[in-house]
Amino acid sequence: MHKLNFTIKIAASKEKVWETLWNETTYPQWTNVFCEGSYAVSDWKEGSKVHFLTPNGQGMYSLIAKMVENEFISFNHLGLLKDKIEQPPTEETKQWSESFEDYTLTESEGVTTLSVNVDSLDQYVEFFNEKFPVALQNVKNLAETKVSAAI
Questions:
Q1: Measured in Å, how far apart are the chain's first and last C-alpha atoms?
Q2: 74-123: per-residue pLDDT in tens?
């Protein structure tokens, strides 16, 4: 398992960046780089599950292992979804179940640093290295646009 790290500085408060990350309107906008039309279903509370879904109901389910609102969220990836239904573990999913994806937000003088740490299998390293910087740039554009639109 590889530990990947991606970081970007965003000229917005950590509250604005957090909302951009997990709001049902903006989440699909920044994650479309991974899969067009993707969305997430959760109550966004520590200990709750999250269903990360494609428009056709496929995807992955995870547990919110730790959450400090506006500062940190850790997803413990557990398994796959088919037709929006959690699937039992397979040999494939056992290779990456219990992997984590962590988002950390720190703010200084109105600039938020967003850091993402992702556990990845060999076959996904190139995909994540290509897609995550684009996704984080999408978060930056959305959060900064929302800030200037609010002024």
A1: 44
A2: 999 988 889 998 888 888 878 787 789 999 999 999 899 999 999 998 88
CA atoms within 13 A on the CB side of 31: 18
Alpha carbon 21 to its chain's center: 7
DSSP state of 89: P
Q: What is the CATH number of domain 2-150?
A: 3.30.530.20
Alpha-carbon Rg for the chain, nearest whole angstrom, is 15
Q: Convert 132-144 to b/e letters by CB count within 10 Å (16 or more is b).
A: beebbebbbebbb
Residue 31 neighbours by CB distance under 10 Å: 20
| E strand spans, the chain | 2-10, 39-41, 49-53, 59-68, 72-82, 85-86, 99-108, 111-120
Select from 30, 132, 24, 38 the least CA-distant residue to 81: 38
* 3-class state of residue 143 by DSSP: helix
Identify the DSSP state of 19.
H
Look-up of token digits 């076959």: 123
Can you give the pTM of this predicted structure? Answer: 0.90
The sign of the torsion formed by the CA atoms of 124, 76, 49, 6 equals negative
